[in-house]
Amino acid sequence: MKKYVILTLISLTIILMIFASGNSTISNIEYVSAVKAEKKTAVEIINYSGTVEYRNSTVCSAKGAGVIQSVLAENGDFVTKGDPVLTVFQTESEISNADIMSAITSGDFQSIVSAADGDISSVVYEAPSTGIISGLDIEENSFFQKGQILFKVSPEQSFQVRINALEKDIPKLKIGQSVKIDCKAVPDILYGTVDSIGSSAKQTTTASGKETTVKITVKIDGENKDIKSGYTASCSIKISEKSNALLIPYSCVGKDEDNKNFVYLLKNGALKKQFVSCGTEYSNGMEILSGLSDGDIVVSDYSKVKDISSTVVNEVKGHAE
């Protein structure tokens, strides 16, 4: 009797060991997702944030130095060519800032006349064209220098986006490149083209420090009553494109100890390490020149594969752009 009990216990022990071993094997399996390599149009895009402003503005600049006497219009006003916008006390003689500030403080503009040797007069600045007033950021009794931009007049519903582009991107930017424009305050996506690229660079302070930038403008196509000067616009500039390129997400491609590019390819239900030759890194994926074919299935993120023998693909997604 004891013999049968012992045999039964041994059998149960073996069964439990087998069951535990099976569970251990199952628990060691890593499940990963995969994507299909697809032939499509590869696109390189640069993203920038800019400011909407009126386009084709006519600039009104000061013909001398002086003080604003009265402001007769506001930004956003519609004016006809010849409408008065500013009246000023102005001279073409050299006047020091100290003399001007003293006159502003005291209200004694006769002192300016004395400083200018009597060469001072009241001048009216008129709208140089018909359109919308913008850039009128000067107040009564404020001082201005000769050549200073006093205001602009722009055609109604004609807009552009002003962008400070990093110098590293300038060689890639060309006039005429297409741009997708997103303004949060405008319900529809807007479209446009690169219209101008500045001829000089400047230092711009950003959150990460000082950057060398070049001003570029993007012309907004058509008219849209919802656009306003001063809005922030997110611009996606299409730098280049290539049709019929074989693409996979960047995360699919790894490098081995010999600096060779590889992916994990699903073939006949099992994964294998497949070496590939890569081309250009586009905004919507990595171009594969050799090693894969259209429709091949590869692991979405090569770094998720720790042991190829215990890794199983449990879902195949579309190409992630």
Enter the CATH topology name of the largest domain.
OB fold (Dihydrolipoamide Acetyltransferase, E2P)
Number of strands: 22
Structural class, please? mainly beta
**How much helical structure, as a percent, in the residues?**
10-25%
Instruction: Give the C-alpha Rg.
Output: 34 Å
The number of helices is 3
Q: Cα distance, first to last residue?
A: 70 Å
Strand content: over 45%
Shape: elongated
**Unreliable stretches:** none
What do we call the CATH homologous superfamily of the largest domain? RNA polymerase II/Efflux pump adaptor protein, barrel-sandwich hybrid domain
What CATH first level of the largest domain would be assigned?
Mainly Beta
Quick tags:
OB fold (Dihydrolipoamide Acetyltransferase, E2P), single chain, Elongation Factor Tu (Ef-tu), domain 3, four-stranded antiparallel β-sheet, six-stranded antiparallel beta barrel, conserved putative lor/sdh protein from methanococcus maripaludis s2 fold, 321 residues, 13% helix, mainly beta
